[in-house]
Design brief:
By secondary structure, the chain is α/β, with parallel strands linked by helices. It is 43% helix and 14% strand. The strands form 2 sheets. The chain has a 7-stranded mixed β-sheet, sandwiched between helices. Strands 5-11-7-8 form a 4-stranded mixed β-sheet. β7 and β8 form a beta hairpin.
Length: 350
């Protein structure tokens, strides 16, 4: 197993370059990005996350933190840092009385998104407040976007501290998805997919919809883009069983093929928590089937998704994704002729 990036709490060396570039409204290439962070009761992690953003070699043009009714010190901590970080802004929402994982997260994100003019930015990122990012994280993502015009959404890979061993270990996440805790989007792609769906599995639907339109989606296992997820995936609300059950419902809602979901649960059987997590995923899916709960109301999307998932079972995910990306390229090129030409020119000059 490769080493994780150096301790993210160590500051960048004195004199390290921090870049903020001007807006690209005049047609020039812009690196301006906006972070939007929905959060609730994140006081335990907020300082570490904010400090990791403050160390970025490519600083955000704007960071909107949307406090979704915290009862702890989260808003106070954000305001403290906003006094010294000119790009940091706090938006407060009323307390709905409970955490609403999935839909609530996106409701809060959308409240922050409504306060900005998206055209002021080349990139939009939904960012959680329980992460520790390496200093070159966002600059690395922007460079990937600049190198590939079809790349619509990207991220690094999350690692977490194992609760029993204390060792840093990777979270399981496919290379064909940007991860939900740091969804970095090219603004034009985000606009075309219509933003995020206000339901569990919003962070899977978005990537599949992007591929329907010919965009590429990824998460990258490069050491410089690995980050620490301070609260492991699926452990954010009433424990791991509830989190994994919710994930199973999300797969049902999205329209995942039953055979594919079963194979996914088997594949993840030996990750923490061993067996229990997979059992919860299966219960969440099949209990939703039995109750005939509502599904994502887009039959064409569900058909596209299942065709892809069956291809993954037959050929392997990497081969199926590569084949699908190649097949969808013509759709993207037809919709973005000028971007395609610019990308070809850049590749010839490199």
């Amino acid at each position: 197993m490769g080493a994780v990036h150096p301790d993210p709490l160590v500051p960048s060396p004195p004199g390290a370059r921090v870049t903020v570039l001007p807006s690209g409204r005049d047609g020039s290439r812009s690196r301006r990005y906006c972070l939007i962070t929905p959060c609730r009761d994140e006081a335990s992690y907020a300082r570490r996350t904010i400090e990791s953003i403050a160390r970025q070699t490519l600083a955000p043009a704007l960071w909107v933190v949307v406090d979704d009714g915290s009862k702890d010190e989260t808003p106070k901590i954000v305001e403290e840092y906003a006094a010294t970080l000119s790009y940091l802004r706090l938006v407060r929402r009323g307390d709905r009385g409970r955490r609403k994982v999935g839909p609530g997260v996106i409701e809060a994100f959308n409240a922050g998104y409504a306060t900005i003019d998206p055209l002021d930015f080349e990139y939009i990122c939904k960012l959680d407040l329980d992460l520790d990012l390496p200093a070159g994280y966002f600059e690395g993502l922007v460079r990937r976007m600049e190198a590939e015009p079809r790349l619509g959404t990207t991220s690094g890979k999350p690692w977490f501290v194992h609760p029993r061993t204390g060792a840093l270990e990777p979270e399981v996440c496919g290379d064909e998805m940007s991860v939900g805790m740091t969804k970095f989007y090219r603004r034009s792609c985000f606009t075309e997919i219509g933003g995020f769906v206000e339901e569990v599995m919003w962070d899977g639907i978005d990537c599949h919809r992007a591929r329907m339109l010919g965009w590429l989606a990824e998460s990258v296992n490069e050491e410089s883009l690995r980050f620490v997820h301070l609260r492991p995936q699926g452990a954010s609300h009433h424990g791991m069983w509830t989190g994994r059950t919710r994930a199973g419902f999300g797969q049902y809602f999205m329209g995942a093929a039953p055979l594919y979901h079963f194979a996914s649960a088997v594949f993840r059987a030996f990750e923490h928590p061993m067996l229990v997590g997979s059992m919860a995923m299966l219960w969440g899916y099949w209990s939703s089937v039995l109750r005939r709960l509502p599904r994502y109301d887009d039959p064409a999307f569900r058909q596209f998704l299942r065709r892809y998932q069956y291809a993954c079972l037959l050929r392997g995910k990497a081969a199926a994704t590569a084949q699908l990306n190649a097949r969808q390229a013509s759709i993207w090129h037809a919709a973005h002729p000028s971007d395609a030409l610019a990308g070809e020119s850049a590749h010839r000059g490199s």
